[in-house]
């Protein structure tokens, strides 16, 4: 064994002990290359999802039915931009920069959540996204507050607080519509029918087909498997659907007293794979919009860099 190999095995021992003691890995700590790469992949994908996720709702800001709804939607979409920024910053602590991550998103080398490749067809979708999509996000992200990587876990705490507000505003919007006219109730049901299955797909493929889960759990990056979180989401959503008075579009959904959980049908996994590969209804449009926004913002980045350089020179002089 060379000296370098001995040093690396000692570093690995220290890293494993930190994980085993449920303590956090911080940016300056040594970490295995695979751990770093997995975190960059997941955190960047998460950041991209927040930024691309502004589009389906952003489209409706100018068509909000009242000033109150407009202010709420605007605030929510701005929160999502903020989440993207915290997450890109967390990824940067791992030695990548944001420009490089944006390039990877635009070239298709990195993914973003499948859910944002579905179109928003009615205003009820603003409520359903809040209720189901943010609801699924909370289920997935609350355990990530305990992720073994410090900057990611800390970013998640603030993100989750805001997601919780997002979910409630969605539920309140749907509740208001359900108390309205027959037509409004039908609009909510139609929207829930379209978003239910894609929301279940947000948790990723079934555990048996999830190549990353086992290693990510061993490293304490993920705290639960995809199927565990999906089950938690279904159990959480069923009573909420009853309160709202909507039917979840799954004929196999029923309470299983033995398991003390709901049984439910399988989403169309071939659809998830197809959307992930880029063949969803809105993939091309979402990336084209993101590319245009990035290009249109070039002058802002240039101005900010020039201003920072000028300030740095002045503080040296
Ligand atoms: N969509 O081995 P697996 C939000 C990929 S934003 C696309 O299970 P992993 C919001 C996966 O990346 C919420 N791709 O992977 C914003 C992997 O491919 P690569 C976003 C998916 O990482 C605005 C491959 O499939 N949330 O809430 O262990 C408005 C195999 O999967 C998907 C997060 O990003 C998918 N659904 O587990 C409103 C949460 N599923 O990368 C709301 C953080 C799987 O190897 N991320 N893939 O090429 C995670 O928790 C995990 O990354 C996942 C997947 C559970 C998503």
Summarize the structure.
The chain is mainly alpha-helical and 317 residues long. Helix content is 68%, strand content 2%.
Question: What would you note in describing this structure?
Answer:
With 317 residues, the chain is mainly alpha-helical. The chain is 68% helix and 2% strand. It is built from 13 helices and 2 strands, in the order ααααααααααββααα. It has a two-stranded antiparallel sheet. A hairpin with a 4-residue loop joins β1 (254-256) and β2 (261-263). α2 runs antiparallel to α4 and α6 (124-141) runs antiparallel to α7. The radius of gyration is 21 Å and the shape is globular. The structure holds benzoyl coenzyme A. Benzoyl coenzyme A is lined by residues 41-42, 45-46, 49-50, 53, 80, 111, 113-114, 133-134, 137, 140, 201-205, 210-213, 216, 222, 226, 276.
Describe the secondary-structure layout.
Layout: H1 3-20, H2 33-52, H3 54-58, H4 67-92, H5 98-107, H6 124-141, H7 150-178, H8 182-201, H9 213-218, H10 226-244, E1 254-256, E2 261-263, H11 269-279, H12 283-296, H13 298-316
Helix pairs in contact: 2-4, 4-7, 6-7, 6-8, 6-10
This protein binds benzoyl coenzyme A.
Benzoyl coenzyme A binds next to α2, α6 and α9.
